[in-house]
Amino acid sequence: MNNLANNPAPDVTEDGFLGGQLKLRQPRTGHRAGHDAILLAAATPARSGDRVVDLGSGVGAAGLAVARRVAGIDLALVEIDPTLAALARGNAAANAIAADVIVLDVEATASVFAAAGLAPDSADVVLMNPPFNDPARHRASPDSVRERAHVATATTLESWVHVARRMLKSNGRLAMIWRADGIAEVLAALDRGFGSVEILPVHADVRGPAIRILVRATKGGRAPTQLHAALLLNDESGVPNKWVQEILAGNGGLPLSRP
């Protein structure tokens, strides 16, 4: 593995993920990769040889984590911000992971996607961590990049799911993460063209409601919706869940990740 720069720029940090198996440079402030990206990667059902597209990839954390777990995927990282895309390109190279990094608005037209090499019915797997904070309850950030990365509009989820549906082959798989109180929005968006939906609630601890949902869906799937047992990040004493820590360290995947 190539080493990243020994002295990152003052506005960039170098951080280890997957127990040090993946090292990423990312902005010191603004949108930063964390547990959400790694849990999403661990819930992504990919096989060697699959064309895998990470929508809104940021610096590449989720997509590159999938590639570290599943060798031989054909990975594309799609990011609207050129600065983050440049970091993603550097991160892929530094970790010796082959990836196409494409600067593109996720809500661009099908013709724009096709011109960028992302034609309809061409992907086996799409993963995404769309902006999901409710603007009515989210304090606006002075950082425009961070705001765009975190705050959803009224059409964000529907638009991103539409793009995933367009790109996926028949029986292609979608993996996504969203805030738990938006589960009705997720199910409504997936009702058009997706089935075989599986939902994994994520709780900070046993006492509180779910804070995230990890979702797997199949284009054209017909199996009934499944709700998996909750994933607890911490046990009753507030101690980090050992299984979750193993997942975050890159040792295995979540139930949704089976091919």
Overall description:
The structure is a single chain. The chain has about 260 residues and is of the alpha/beta class. It has one domain (about 10-250): Rossmann fold. The chain has helices spanning about 35-40, 60-70, 80-95, 110-115, 145-150, 155-165, 185-190, 240-250; strands spanning about 10-15, 20-25, 50-55, 75-80, 100-105, 125-130, 170-180, 195-205, 210-220, 225, 230. The strands form two sheets. Strands 3, 4, 5, 6, 7, 8, 9, 10 and 11 form a nine-stranded mixed sheet that branches. A two-stranded antiparallel sheet has the order 1-2. Strand 4, helix 3 and strand 5 (about 100-105) form a beta-alpha-beta unit. Helix 1 (about 35-40) runs parallel beside helix 2 (about 60-70) and helix 6 runs parallel beside helix 7 (about 185-190). The longest helix has 13 residues, at about 80-95. The radius of gyration is 17 Å and the shape is globular. It starts with 11 loop residues before the first strand and ends in an 11-residue tail after the last helix. Residues about 145-150 have low confidence and may be disordered.
